[in-house]
């Protein structure tokens, strides 16, 4: 199947297609389409790669440009080993099994941030008021802003959103941002 490239002829303002032969050294794996690669996602596979290297794992994704495969292998200690196989090195791929619903869920959430703590409205209000009082006690101008008054604004150039941690600070002024985050770290240290 020839690869089609399009060339725009500026003088005549028309588009003509040029059939270009596929590169002779592309592997069968590289010739697959993204939709074909998609059928491998969430499946356990065994890959025979260049130099007779064998890899086994659950397919997380296949890069549609390079045909690289990203495999996940759950370890006994609860962690996961991730391997990348370069698309040009893939010689053969065997599907071993389909993922169970539990495995699909695990693979889907592999790169998601960990469970974050949720706070009630009262806890958020207490955290906000405590931080605001501490900032004011240290002579740092702070006010509440936003429709529901949940965001703290420091000196008019930095905002702190719920749940009011150093990572919740936003400012275009990096110097002020780093200093306020440092102050908040010491504030959190005092609370513990």
How would you explain this protein's 3D organization?
- The protein has 192 residues and is α+β, with helices and mostly antiparallel strands.
- The protein has five helices and eleven strands; from the N terminus they run E-E-H-H-E-E-E-E-E-H-H-E-E-E-E-H.
- The strands form three sheets. Strands 6-5-4-3-7 form a five-stranded antiparallel β-sheet. It has a four-stranded antiparallel β-sheet with strand order 8-9-10-11, with helices on one face. A two-stranded antiparallel sheet has the order 1-2.
- 13% of the residues are buried.
Question: Which helices and strands, and how do they pair?
Answer:
Blueprint lengths: L2 E7 L4 E7 L7 H4 L2 H5 L4 E7 L4 E9 L6 E6 L5 E6 L4 E9 L2 H8 L12 H17 L4 E4 L5 E4 L3 E3 L8 E2 L3 H18 L1
Antiparallel strand pairs: 1-2, 3-4, 3-7, 4-5, 5-6, 8-9, 9-10, 10-11
Rg, Å, rounded: 27 Å
Strand order of the largest sheet: 6-5-4-3-7
Assembly type of the chains comes to single chain
Instruction: Name the poorly predicted regions.
Output: 1-23
What order do the SSEs take from the amino end to the carboxyl end, as H and E? EEHHEEEEEHHEEEEH
**Count, helices:** 5
Give the number of DSSP strands. Answer: 11
Shape: elongated
Largest sheet: 5 strands, antiparallel
Features:
11 strands; alpha+beta; 192 residues; 4-stranded antiparallel beta sheet; 5 helices; 27% helix; 5-stranded antiparallel beta sheet; elongated; disordered N terminus; single chain
């Amino acid at each position: 199947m020839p690869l089609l490239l399009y060339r725009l002829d500026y003088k005549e303002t028309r588009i003509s297609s040029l059939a270009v032969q596929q590169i002779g050294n592309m592997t069968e794996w590289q010739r697959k389409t993204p939709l074909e690669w998609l059928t491998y996602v969430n499946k356990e596979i065994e890959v025979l790669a260049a130099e007779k290297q064998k890899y086994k794992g659950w397919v997380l994704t296949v890069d549609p440009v390079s045909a690289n495969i990203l495999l996940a292998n759950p370890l006994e200690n609860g962690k996961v080993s991730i391997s990348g196989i370069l698309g040009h090195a893939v010689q053969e791929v065997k599907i071993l099994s389909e993922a169970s619903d539990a495995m699909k869920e695990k693979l889907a959430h592999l790169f998601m941030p960990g469970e974050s703590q949720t706070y009630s409205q009262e806890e958020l209000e207490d955290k906000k008021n405590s931080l605001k009082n501490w900032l004011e006690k240290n002579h740092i101008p702070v006010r509440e802003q936003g429709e529901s008054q949940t965001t703290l604004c420091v000196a008019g150039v930095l905002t702190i959103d719920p749940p009011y941690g150093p990572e919740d600070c936003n400012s275009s002024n990096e110097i002020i941002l780093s200093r306020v985050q440092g102050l908040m770290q010491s504030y959190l240290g005092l609370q513990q």
